[in-house]
Amino acid sequence: MKQSTINNSIEISGIGLFSGEKVNLRLNPADIDAGITFSINGNKVSATYNNIISTDRRTIIGSESIQVHTVEHLLAAFYMKGITNVIVEMDNFEPPILDGSSKGFIDAINKVGVKEQDKEILPIVINKKIEYDVPSKDTYIIALPYDGFKITYVTDYPTCDGIVNEDFSVDMLFGSKDNESEIAGARTYCLASELLDLNRKNFLKGASLDSGVVFLDNNLSNENKEELIREFDLDRKSFSSKVINEEGLRFENEAARHKILDILGDFFLLGRPIKGHIIAHKTGHAENIELVKKIAKELKLNHDIKKYKYDINQILEILHHRYPFLLIDEITELVPNKTVKAIKNVTFNEHYFQGHFPGKAIMPGVLIVEAMAQSGGFLLLHTVKDPSTQLVIFSRVNFAKFKKMIVPGDTVFFNTELVSFKMNTCKLYSKAIVNDEVVAESEFMATIIDKDF
Questions:
Q1: Least confident of 177-186, 248-257, 433-442
Q2: In a domain, 292, yes or no
Q3: pLDDT above 90 covers what percent of the chain?
Q4: How far is the C-alpha of 259 from the C-alpha of 278, rounded, in Å?
Q5: Where is 396: in which H helix or E strand?
């Protein structure tokens, strides 16, 4: 799959759910690898899990200079449209709530269209069970391996018959048009008793029956009904159905569908789509984000571009090559799932100089490409659970160019980039650099297979 942005700028205005204030929002196209950035009056913060500040009834991200509230519905819209790079400019601290779903954002994006960009985006592959649970609340959320991206949400509201208690599952492929019909229009919701409590505390200053769904509790008192009539200008007939909204429900299981929308937005703070199956039982933003952080930790995701170094002993723990065919001496920098930088110190004692060539020692081109492949193999094996059970093998060399000779005494720096990764097969691009000059480059394919020896 490719990175993408919007074709043109988009302007949307509305009321913030928590602030109750008008907010003007402008979406602007962004360059490759820019990611999603929020900007309030020139102060910027990236939409990544590292910048999460709070999950109290909404997801809040921030930096030293700004906070951005209620980002989940807009981020879910970006996921559903497959948008990876965009700048979100606002003049207030939260996007407009609109109708409480992602539909308004998606409708606006559809008017200008999405532009595919010339760089792959690699999914985050869930390769093992990762779980977060709160037994005291009977709440859990699990990530499991799955060939695709599926979300299952389990609703359980014993005090509200209007909310269907069921296991609802839906495949949510990145950028798929099916997302819009299945999930985009599902609105945020609460129980009538919750709305009254939040209204008394002046917590939702921008709440209205046009910005979400209000389900009737099973045993809502007459006093509470009278208060709802006064505060929200209701007719008594409003209490004759499952919800007090005049529009009614858009889906029989709209509550479960909106919870999936929230999960989409929260999980897109990982910065990339997921390949896996998310199963959630009675979760909210707090539990969603805890699993997001756990996935990032256990799968060694680093959106702050944290870098790692490895010496020869650590290289031997990952790669299966040994003398005389181990051709890298040190990993000076590794950014998981992205790039690796390796060093080869070329000495006159290399065994191949005996025959290549007597009297004029030159490192063979095939071994230069092999060293590139070994650096790429280290990058790939760094992502698997047990490198001792896997091998990385060449499947194709797309091209190789040799510009200058590598000779004894040279220190070669191999800069290798993971271009794409699909179905255990990847494309890598590597440059060999000596004295700050590119002496060779290659693009090649490799495959991860099970080790059978």
A1: 177-186
A2: yes
A3: 81
A4: 12
A5: strand 390-402
Q: Catalytic annotation on 285?
A: yes
Q: Where does the pLDDT of residue 309 fall: very low under 50, low under 70, confident under 90, or very high at 90 and above?
A: confident
Considering the candidates 69, 285, 303, 351, report the single residue annotated as catalytic. Answer: 285
Residue 66 and residue 139 in one domain = yes
Amino acid identity of residue 183, one-letter, is I
Mean pLDDT of 381-398: 86
**Residue among 125, 151, 150 nearest 380 (CA):** 125
Residue 136 domain-assigned? yes
Q: Can you give the pLDDT at residue 303?
A: 40
Mean pLDDT to the nearest integer, 166-170: 91
Does one domain contain both 203 and 130?
no
Mean of pLDDT values over 231-244: 91
Question: Reduced to 3 states, what is the DSSP secondary structure of residue 239?
Answer: helix
Catalytic residue among 303, 320, 321, 356: 356
From the list 334, 296, 333, the residue with the least C-alpha distance to 130 is: 296
Question: Are 364 and 415 spatial neighbours (Cβ–Cβ below 8 Å)?
Answer: no
For 78-98, what is the mean pLDDT? Answer: 97
**213 is in which domain, residue-wise?**
189-240
In a domain, 38, yes or no: yes
Q: List Cβ neighbours of 438 (8 Å cut-off, separation of 6 or more).
A: 403, 431, 432
Number of other CB atoms surrounding residue 425 within 10 Å: 13
Dihedral angle computed from the Cα positions of residues 177, 178, 179 and 182, in that order, rounded to the nearest 10 degrees:
150
Q: What is the largest CA-CA distance in the chain?
A: 100
